[in-house]
Every structure is written in structure tokens, then in C-alpha cells.
């Protein structure tokens, strides 16, 4: 009996690893990618070292965004083009915000039948505080476009609308 226990644990471990690597559907992978993107832009209290923040954001974004990804946010008057521009803009948030967190809700994900692209609409809730100010909570609609590139899902476009409750709140 005792001889079979280690063998059983090894088989169970291999099965778990196989599921983790091959069991998740493309839809699950894209949903996880969206949540990783929301988490990657966070600003933690005390996250004041721009070099450390740059390293974390650059590393996270290399696994989330394509090299030529773009983003559009109403508060930024120009469309950000390229992963490096997205990294720079995200790192600069740490100079403005003492804390910021993004969560995604009401995600409507549409996968293309060929399995190479996906589009999602979601409500993003941003909770944060600029340095020296009280915490504020904003909601906005966000559209994402992802593509399967070399077998991995990457975001290629993010378009955020204005804060909900304003006249122009759709992306």
C-alpha cells in the first residue's frame, strides 16, 4: 500500500500539470489575459520607485500586449501606439497616483470562429487616489481586442470610454 502512494501522487501531479498546460480553453486564456492586464496597471501605496515599477510593468506587458499594441484613453489626448508607449504611460501613473486598482466586470467576450481573434467589452472600475487626495471610484466601458500570436494570446488594442455618467461614456 505504501509503495502505491508515491506513484499515485506522481500520476496526480502529472495530470494536474497537463490540465494547467492544455486544459484551459482559449476563452479562459483570454479572460485571464484581461484580468492580468487590469492587475498590471495597478499602483500600490509606497510604489514610488519608478525603476522598480518600470521593470514590473515592462515584464508584465511583454506577456500581455503585442509589440504593436495600441490604447486610447480619453484623459490622454493621443492614441498610444506600441507596447513601449503603453509601458511608459503606465509607469507615469505612479507619479500621479498614490494608489490605483482596476477590476473588470460584465465582460462580454466574443471569440472569432477561427480561434485567432477575440473581442471583449467590459466595465472597468478604477479605484484610486492621487497623491494627497481622497480615494475616488470611476467606472467606464472598455473594449479589448486580442489575437493569437505564435500560439499565445496577446492584447492588440484597448479603447476606454469616458467615465460612466458623462455624456460620452461609450468607447
UniProtKB/TrEMBL annotation:
Ranges in a coiled coil: none
Highest taxon in the source lineage: Bacteria
Q: Which residues form the SnoaL-like domain?
A: 59-157
Please provide an example of a Pfam family that matches this protein in its UniProt record. SnoaL_4
InterPro entries listed in its UniProt record = NTF2-like_dom_sf (IPR032710), SnoaL-like (IPR037401)
Q: What is the name of the protein in this document? A: SnoaL-like domain-containing protein
Q: Which organism is it from?
A: Chondromyces crocatus
Amino acid at each position: 500500500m505504501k509503495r502505491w502512494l508515491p506513484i499515485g501522487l506522481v500520476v496526480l501531479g502529472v495530470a494536474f500539470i497537463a490540465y494547467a498546460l492544455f486544459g484551459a480553453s482559449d476563452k479562459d486564456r483570454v479572460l485571464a489575459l484581461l484580468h492580468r492586464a487590469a492587475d498590471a496597471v495597478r499602483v500600490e501605496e509606497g510604489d514610488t520607485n519608478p525603476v522598480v515599477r518600470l521593470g514590473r510593468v515592462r515584464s508584465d506587458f511583454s506577456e500581455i500586449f503585442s509589440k504593436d499594441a495600441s490604447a486610447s484613453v480619453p484623459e490622454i489626448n493621443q492614441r498610444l501606439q506600441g507596447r513601449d508607449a503603453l509601458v511608459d504611460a503606465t509607469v507615469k501613473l505612479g507619479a500621479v497616483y498614490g494608489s490605483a486598482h482596476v477590476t473588470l466586470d460584465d465582460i462580454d467576450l466574443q471569440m472569432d470562429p477561427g480561434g485567432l481573434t477575440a473581442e471583449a467589452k467590459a466595465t472597468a472600475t478604477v479605484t484610486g487616489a492621487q497623491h494627497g487626495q481622497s480615494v475616488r471610484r470611476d467606472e467606464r466601458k472598455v473594449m479589448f481586442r486580442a489575437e493569437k500570436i505564435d500560439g499565445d494570446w496577446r492584447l492588440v488594442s484597448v479603447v476606454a470610454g469616458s467615465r460612466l455618467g458623462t455624456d460620452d461614456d461609450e468607447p
